[in-house]
Amino acid sequence: MRRRFIADSWSPSSGHPDEAALTGQQAAHLARVLRAHPGQVYDIVANGFLHRGEITSVSDTEVRFTLHEELEADAGLPICLLLAIFKFDHFEWAVEKATELGVARITPILARRTEKHLAHAAAKRVERWRRIALEASKQSRRTDIPEIADPALLAAALAAETAPTRILLSETEQSLHLVSAITRTSTDPSRKSGAPGQLTDWGGSEGWDVQTSLALAIGPEGGWAPDEISLFTTHQWTHVTLGPRILRAETAAIAALAIASAHY
User: How far apart are CA 236 and CA 226, in angstroms?
Assistant: First the structure.
């Protein structure tokens, strides 16, 4: 199995590229550690497309490729994760594992019960979270990198979320389970309307768009505040449970994503 890298630049800049380059740490790793040389072949992801890439030039700062035939690749999952910010080491683990599971977007949420020092420091951690997502994408052989949005207040994030199916993991919900909620919406014959709470057919190997996506919200340590729960209800989020056990936030996020990805 060939090693896979995600290109830092490519040309042309839109559509199917025919040339790509790795720069920075990726180039240094290829040049110094793997001792790459012209003529070697790797799998290269550029502009969301997976190609067989042949090295044309090598330096410590840049490795250039000619891209040949496009290779078959699995599509990412149409899942967006609203993840309340909690202890950074646990949060980073959740970002890494969510990326491996195929999440399309992660929006860090500044929740009412997010610890103040974490909320103040979050903006400075975003680039680190994006690097973690990049490395996890390469490790898991994804052909894309999930979007890691800037930290947002809950009200703004809910107002901006347009996924037709929106599900909140809630400690107060006891009867409706996540798998039941997803199954119910996906088997509803009226789901193609794209109304809130209804799944539409999604693109499979052709990708997905906002009309086919699922949003999941995971609260902070200590849970969502009552006014935040009311805000979710106002925005027509379905409240669900993962079962009787109390899970850590990062465990709940990964369990929910695993259940949703198994469904898709």
Answer: 16
pLDDT grade, residue 187 (50/70/90)?
A: low
Residue 126, H or E segment? helix 116-139
- Structural fold of domain 4-70: Ribosomal Protein L25; Chain P (2.40.240)
Q: What are phi and psi of 162, to 5 degrees?
A: -115, 10
Contacts of 46 (CB under 8 A, 6+ apart): 6, 7, 10, 17, 20, 67
In the predicted model, what is the mean pLDDT of the chain?
87
pTM: 0.76
Taking residue 11's Cβ as centre, other Cβ atoms within 10 Å add up to 13
Residues with Cβ within 8 Å of 38's Cβ and at least 6 positions away in sequence, in order, are 55, 56, 57, 58
What tokens does 63 get? 């490795």
79-263 placed in CATH 3.40.50.10420: no
What are the extents of the domains in the chain?
4-70, 79-263
Distance CA 12, CA 224 (A): 46
